[in-house]
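ligand=iron/sulfur cluster
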Amino acid sequence: MPPEFSTVEQYWDTPLDISGKTLNVIKVYKDGSSVIKDSEKNGYAFMKVSCLHCADPSCVSACPVSAMTKDPVNGIVSYDKGACIGCRYCVAACPFGVPRFQYDTPFPQITKCQLCAHRMKEGKYAACAYVCPTGATLFGKVRDLHAEARRRLALKPGEDAEFPRGNLSTHDQSSFPAKAAKYLPQIYGEKEVGGTQMLKLSAVSFEKLGMPTLPERSYAATSETMQHTLYGSLVLPLAFLGVLSYVAKRNVKDDEGNDEQH
Ligand code: SF4
Ligand code: SF4
């Protein structure tokens, strides 16, 4: 994808949201003086915005020509530009506002994150998790991600902890030392619209971070049986991506050897 600019000075790509050019963006929440990390009042927080790879995706249900499909093995929701007829039903159907239409190109396509499916064919995993230094974005099997989310929720706020980074379900992972956050007791994506493959933790309310409050039943109006098979019993996915945002107050030494917190 080409870089996208939101300022006149085009030094760095600075998209403000996902779009026909941007599949994945980290949005910033700010309040008041914006000095306290992960605080709703006078604080700031980050939220990753991209496709959540729903267990029962309404974009797939809405597509009349099967240009949106869900992989039965790894659960990735993919887009086939060759099959697409440009009706934009998927744009209207997604409860998270994810699929975007390229209005400004002569041959428009739908764009959305496809969980780096092209990398998986090469034995790699999602690039956003691969490059994330702190484990705020973490890749792995859904059962492992759920376990890690529950572990993070159970940590005492402020306690020193290790946060795995990279691919949680392989042995090549490393970890990042940080102090535990004061999370809200909610795993976003565990129940919303039948469950999503991307899971989120946050210390700031999800609504304030732009994530909609949604019912548990999927908009795709699938049968209970299908939902239970896909997600409730967790038999489907091999590769699930979780996004676990947390308060990173990392202990470091300043130049004079004193303890500092960042
Ligand atoms: S988040 Fe939207 S685009 Fe992604 S799988 Fe769910 S319904 Fe489809
Ligand atoms: S725009 Fe393309 S992918 Fe979206 S619903 Fe229509 S045919 Fe399917």
